[in-house]
Amino acid sequence: MKRYLAAAWCAASLLSVPLAAGAAERTVSSLRLIGEQRIPHRLDFQGTVVGGLSGVDYDPASGAWLLASDDRSALSPARFYSARLDYDGAAFRSVTLTGVATFKQADGSNYPSVKQYDVNKTGDVPDIEALRIDPLDGTVWYTSEGDRKRGFDPFVRHMQRDGAYLGAVQLPEMFRVSREEKGSRDNLSFEGLSFAPDGRSMWVAMESPLYQDGPLPTPAGGAFVRISRMDRDGRMLEQYAYPVDAIPAAPGPGKVADNGVSEIVAVNQRSLLVLERSAVQDAAGAYKNYIRLYEMETGGGASDVRGVEALAGGGFRPAAKRLVLDLNTLGIRLDNLEAMSFGPKLPNGHDSLLIVSDDNFGKDQVTQFLLFEVIPKNGMLN
Asked: How many other CB atoms are found less than 10 A from the CB of residue 113?
C-alpha cells in the first residue's frame, strides 16, 4: 500500500464491518467431492478470452465469485471475472459468468502485454496468480509473480471492485528479483494469498524456494518454501518454512517436471490449507498432474524464519502438515489446479470448497471447477 491510508481503509471501517460468523472456528477433517463443471476452451465472454484462471474468491456479501486470469494482457487486457455458481450438497449444476473487469495500474490504464512493454518500456507486466476479497471492506487484493527477465518484482496490490488501483504492499527485500541468483525465481513466486480469518493480516505463499533457500524439488527430494503473514503495509508478522513434497514421478527422458504451492486459504487462526500442484511430462510430451491438499500448522513449534537469510543452511524446524486429500484418488482427470476458496455453507451447515484449474489457454487442457463438501473435525457443524 506504499504505507498509505486509503479512504476505504480507516479505523471507522474496521469497526463497522463485522467479521464472518464462525470463521475462526472452522476446521477441516476431510473432503467429499460433490461435482465438477467446466468452461469451454477459449470461451469468448464480453469480448475477452476466458482461460488461465489462477485465482478465485467468494464474496458472502453479494453471493458472487471473482476469478482472476493470469493472461499477461496477451489475448485480452489483464482481467478478472465475476460468476455465479449453482450447487448444493447433492449436485454442482452450473457456472455462469456474469461480468469482467480489468486490473488497473496506478495511472488508471490497463496493464501492458509483454510485447507492448518491450516496445514502449512503460508500465509493468503482471503475472496475476491470486486474488482475495477484503473481508473488512469488500475491496480486492491480488498478487503477481513479477517478471525476473524484465526486472519486475513480485507484488501484492490493492484495488476497488472495478479494478481501480488503491495501493501496493511494501515487500521485504528477500522477495525482490536480482541479476544474481538470489531472491525470487522467475514465474515461481507469489502463487498463494489468503486473509487471516479476522481480516487484519494476510498470508502470502511462494510457489517455490527463493534462490538462497535451496534447489527446486526433484523426484528424489522436496524443498522448502516461505509462507508469510504480513500486515496490510507489508510488515512481516511471522514466516514459516513449508516442506513441499518431492515430485511424485520421474519425467520421460529429456522432459520436465515440477512441484510447488499453487494456492493457500486460511482455515482458522492456526492453520492453512495448502494446495500442492505437480506436473510431470512423459516421454511423448504429455503432462500428468498430481494434486495434493494439505493442512499446515502455522505455529505448533515450527521456527519463525523471518530472520533466516537462507533456508538452504538448515537450523530451523519446518511447519507441520497433514494430508487432507490426494486428489488423484478421485478417479477423474485433473488439470492444472491453481485457485481455491471456501464458499457458502451447504444445507447441512458444512463449508463448501471450490478448486479451479488454470488451462494455460492450451488446447490439451481444460478449465475445471471441482466442488467439495468440507467435513469438519469430530463431525461438528461449523
From this structure: 19
Calculate the dihedral angle through the C-alpha atoms of 311, 289, 34, 340, rounding to the nearest 10 degrees. 40
* Whole-angstrom distance, CA of residue 375 vs CA of residue 27: 8
Q: Could you say which DSSP state residue 343 is in?
A: -
Q: Report pTM.
A: 0.93
Q: What sign results for the dihedral spanned by CA atoms 231, 188, 28, 316? A: negative
What is the chain's pLDDT, residue by residue, as a tens digit (382 residues)?
Answer: 333 333 333 333 333 333 443 444 899 999 999 999 999 999 999 999 999 999 999 999 999 999 999 999 999 999 999 999 999 999 999 999 999 999 999 999 999 999 999 999 999 999 999 999 999 999 999 999 999 999 999 999 999 999 999 999 998 999 999 999 999 999 999 999 999 999 999 999 999 999 999 999 999 999 999 999 999 989 999 999 999 999 999 999 999 999 999 999 999 999 999 999 999 999 999 999 999 999 999 988 999 999 999 999 999 999 999 999 999 999 999 999 999 999 999 999 999 999 999 999 999 999 999 999 999 998 654 4
Question: Residue 45 forms beta bridges with which residues?
Answer: 48
The angle subtended at Cα 254 by Cα 252 and Cα 256, nearest 5°, is 70
CB 89 within 8 A of CB 34: yes
123 three-state secondary structure: coil
Segments in 93-165 forming alpha helices (H): 114-120
> What b/e sequence results for 61-89 when a residue is b if at least 16 CB atoms lie within 10 Å of its CB, and e otherwise?
eeebbbbbbbbbbebbbbbbbbbebebeb
C-alpha cell at 181: 541468483
Integer Cα distance of 382 and 380 in angstroms: 6
Q: What is the DSSP string of 162-175?
A: TS-EEEE----GGG
- Bridge partners for 228 per DSSP: 204, 239
- Rounded CA-CA distance 258/217 in Å is 7
C-alpha separations of 133 from 22, 58, 202, 237 in Å: 18, 7, 11, 21
d(CA 204, CA 176): 14
